[in-house]
Amino acid sequence: MLAISPGSLNFDIQAEDLFNGVVTLPVSLTVNDGSTAVTDLPEASISIYPNPATDHLFVESSLNMNHAVILLVDIQGQVVRSSELKEFNKINIEGLGEGIYMVRIQNDEVMINKKVVIR
Length: 119
Known about the structure:
Elements: E1 7-16, E2 22-32, E3 35-38, E4 46-49, E5 56-61, E6 69-73, E7 79-84, E8 88-92, E9 99-106, E10 111-118
Antiparallel strand pairs: 1-2, 2-3, 4-5, 5-8, 6-7, 6-9, 9-10
């Protein structure tokens, strides 16, 4: 059992998915008189659709991530599209080959990877 004194604690959680994408998520833990509250993980605030996609990919985010970028990465790890993260993003994927790609959203503090299929 871990005892934490009242106050705030910030740390990162890292996990690796089946496609070798590493996700780093910041967590804030606040302890007030023995109770705890964990902030929502940022990945839940991102929607990527349609999946599978054919001509455009839409990325919606309610995250307030300063200086964040969206990268579309192919299976060889090459960045094939990139743009600055906004609340609503439309990515043209015409001309890309069919296959599995990773949508990577990152800034200096966090990196989120999600798998998409392009047909």
